[in-house]
Write a structure and sequence with these properties.
Length: about 525
């Protein structure tokens, strides 16, 4: 067996809960401003945040939403997101982050699958939240940061006497977070990330890229996504940094806030790196403080990275991870930067490159499926032992579904995907989910979805459809049908009609044949 170790050494698994780990960078400086609302300018000190977390945990416990409860959080980036997530974790519950752009159809699926007891929702999400909870086990909707409305209460009204100490939890068995991911294939699944997973991954990341005390960055990367939550929000506050929040991405606002707050590092996804490299508005802002642009969530092309670096006079670095890895497994810093690579293995983790056909281990420069083992590997998929067993073997190796190789210095290069996922602007789009919606259309007999390359978005979802007997569905109507049921980034961008969807003898859709038809 060929194992690729971390050049950064080893690291001990954390003995703290995720909130205890983050509080370590906060408790000794109660007056420090660490979260600022980028739109309103409202500033939050560590003392105010810690008090909010403990009072929310107390209120949740008093109302029966504490230890063992699952609480959904549906909100854009805002300082109160920190209070909501860590209040749930401090109370011994499990937080399941929900994309605020989801439709009621998508939210309802997650609430039911997660077994959510309570839904904390921003006012902007309230209409969808109300529609989504019908037919679920959610007992109460709470509005984050605003006055209550009919049938709901405000987050302030949920506060109680402070819960002084962390509610007891099993660091290795209790999910602190339950984000949803499609993994290597199939419909979105609840990813059980334990307290030890998340706290240890913070230590792994900070051992590589560090955060200087007082360092400020701007966060548009969504906190409902594991990248924004545990690779940006939690590590920054755990290390004594501060964050300016943005509820959604807007290039001009991002540039203005980054300039005003003298951000030294910009955390982006590839489409934003492309804009930083090419958009003329970038020249209107003083970004001279920027030292690093860090890109993840999808592969960043070498040409775009080089153009971005030249324009900003900054290092452009990449990282690799996935929700199932809490999320980071490979990172680099300025001292270890290498063009085209996505980083080196984080401390405490191990990697293998495995031939997907033979199952044999491969060595340096050989391309195969990347397998990872370490303290950041998820506990498993909620209520889905089959999917868990298909992803994590008996020895704890997680099969990423990505084709990759290591060079002789331990740098990882991502080459392709075995998994079916489409990456649209860094977001996962599961073909199976779109196909499920398409097949619910009465005029469609069969359907398949693939991603096609797009310079701005990365990939665009396109559909191949077989019309039901006697039906002549309209492509625009089909695209509208999907748009009504799924979030904007999951929308089908093109519909092509076929006589039959190419499949293997086992019934598996032959997506390579479909891609060949697009290319032709």
């Amino acid at each position: 067996m060929t194992i690729f170790e971390s050049p950064f050494g080893d690291i001990a698994p954390s003995e703290r809960t995720i909130t205890e780990r983050v509080f370590e960078g906060m408790l000794d400086r109660p007056d420090a401003v660490v979260l600022t609302d980028g739109l309103t300018g409202e500033a939050w000190t560590t003392g105010r945040l810690v008090d909010g977390v403990k009072r929310l945990a107390g209120g949740l416990t008093e109302r029966g939403f504490g230890a063992g409860a699952t609480v959904a959080i549906m909100a854009p980036n805002m300082p109160l997101y920190f209070v909501a997530f860590h209040g749930v974790a401090w109370a011994g519950g499990t937080a399941t982050p929900v994309n605020p752009a989801y439709t009621a159809y998508e939210v309802r699926h997650q609430l039911n699958d997660a077994g959510a007891d309570l839904l904390l929702a921003a006012l902007s999400c309230l209409d969808v939240a109300r529609a989504a909870v019908e037919g679920t086990g959610v007992r109460q909707i709470v509005v984050i940061g605003d006055a209550g409305a009919d049938g709901v209460i405000a987050l302030d009204d949920l506060m109680g006497a402070p819960l002084v100490d962390q509610a007891p939890v099993d660091l290795d068995r209790h999910p602190a977070a339950l984000p949803y991911s499609s993994g290597t294939t199939g419909l979105p699944k609840g990813v059980m990330l334990t307290h030890r997973n998340m706290a240890t991954n913070i230590d792994q990341m900070l051992a590589v890229f560090g955060v200087r005390p007082g360092e400020t960055t701007v966060a548009f990367l969504p906190f409902f996504h594991i990248y924004g939550l545990n690779a940006l929000l939690n590590p920054y506050l755990a290390a004594g940094g501060s964050i300016v929040t943005m509820p959604r991405f807007d290039l001009e606002t991002f540039l203005r806030l980054s300039a005003e707050h003298r951000a030294t590092r910009l955390w982006v996804a590839p489409p934003v790196a492309l804009a930083l490299a090419k958009h003329p508005i970038v020249d209107s802002f003083d970004l001279s403080a920027v030292e690093v642009v860090f890109s993840a969530a999808a592969p960043l092309g070498e040409d775009v990275a080089a153009a971005c670096a030249r324009r900003l006079g900054a290092a452009v670095l990449q990282g690799y991870g996935m929700t199932e890895l809490s999320p980071a497994s490979h990172l680099m810093n300025i001292e270890t930067a290498r063009a085209g690579a996505v980083g080196q293995t984080t401390p405490g983790a191990q990697c293998r490159i495995v031939d997907p056909e033979t199952g044999q281990d491969l060595g340096v420069d050989a391309e195969g499926e990347l397998w990872i083992k370490g303290p950041q590997v998820m506990l498993g998929y909620l209520n889905n032992p089959a999917a868990t067993a298909a992803t994590i073997d008996d020895e704890g190796w997680l099969k990423t579904g990505d084709l990759a190789c290591f060079d002789g210095d331990g740098y990882l290069y991502i080459r392709d995907r075995l998994k079916e996922l489409i990456k649209y602007k860094g977001f996962q789009v599961a073909p199976a989910e779109l196909e499920d919606v398409l097949l619910s259309h009465p005029a469609i007999a069969d359907a398949a979805v693939i991603g096609i390359p797009d310079e701005e978005a990365g990939e665009l979802p396109v559909a191949f459809v077989v019309a039901a007997s006697g039906s002549t569905p309209d492509p625009d109507e089909i695209m509208a049908y999907v748009a009504e049921r799924l979030a904007t980034y999951k929308r089908v961008r093109r519909v092509t009609f076929l006589e039959a969807i190419p499949k293997s003898a086992s019934g598996k859709i032959l997506r390579r044949e479909l891609r060949a038809r697009i290319s032709a």
